[in-house]
Amino acid sequence: MNESVRRRGQRNVALERDIGQSIREARERAGLSVADMAERMGMQPAQVHRLENGSVIITVSAMASAARVLGVPVSTFFGQHDPLAGGNSAASDDPEEREVLEAYRALRPDARRGFLDFLLGVAAK
């Protein structure tokens, strides 16, 4: 059986661990503590900790909630498991493009819109 296709009830521990790590990294980039993240997601801090450690099966609802709180697309959490990586991904080999994307991702969610507006204004000239 393909490792990415599992029967209901079976866990893909590596995927859950990688998604959890991606959530932790995004939370840290956003400058949120586990307690802040938990409060904004309507969870207990221990639940967020278990999600980030990959010790529980993360639901689509929890991923969507984390993405909303962090101001990132859900696909951010898939990393090397990115379902769009088959050629539709926005990934680039250009170091400057990656640098712009990394700078954007490092911004607080509330600062991202201003950065994007600035960048679009410069590109339009």
The helical percent reads: 55-70%
Largest sheet: none
Based on CA atoms alone, the radius of gyration comes out at: 16 Å
Shape by Cα distribution? globular
**N-C termini distance:** 52 Å
Total count of helical runs of at least 4 residues: 6
* Secondary-structure element series: HHHHHH
Low-confidence stretches: 1-8, 82-90
**CATH topology tier name of the largest domain:** 434 Repressor (Amino-terminal Domain)
Oligomerization state of this entry?
Answer: single chain
Percentage beta strand? under 5%
Integer average pLDDT: 79
Alpha-beta classification: mainly alpha
**How many domains comprise the coordinates?**
2
Domain HTH cro/C1-type: 23-77
GO cellular component, one term: cytosol
Protein name: Helix-turn-helix transcriptional regulator
GO molecular function: DNA binding; DNA-binding transcription factor activity
Structure overview:
- The chain folds into two domains: 1-85, 434 Repressor (Amino-terminal Domain) (Orthogonal Bundle), CATH 1.10.260; 92-125.
- The longest helix has 17 residues, at 13-29.
- It has six helices and no strands.
- The model is unreliable at 1-8 and 82-90 (pLDDT under 50).
- It is mainly alpha-helical.
- 58% of the residues lie in helices and 0% in strands.
